[in-house]
Design goal:
Shape: globular
Structural class: alpha+beta
Strand order of the largest sheet: 1-2
Radius of gyration: 13 Å
Largest sheet: 2 strands, antiparallel
Helix content: 25-40%
Length: 71
């Protein structure tokens, strides 16, 4: 599932929420051409994006993308 939210106060702020069955599926998606398009948008953002991945056992940021894309 994928949901896109826009902040009511900061109209330029967006949040993408996705759920994955497993860590392996998430990593496969992070290596996909579809996700590459999201990375291009983030790279061209006026301000660096805040990236967070939340799991049952913790959270992480850009390092999760980097680890998945360098496999």
């Amino acid at each position: 599932a994928c949901n896109l939210y826009q902040d009511l106060i900061e109209q330029d702020a967006l949040m993408i929420e996705q759920s994955w069955q497993s860590w392996e599926y998430l990593e496969k998606y992070l290596r996909s051409e579809s996700y590459k398009q999201i990375l291009l948008v983030m790279e061209n953002a006026v301000e660096p994006p805040e990236v967070r991945f939340y799991t049952v056992s913790g959270s992480g940021g850009m390092e999760i993308i980097e680890r998945a894309r360098t496999k």
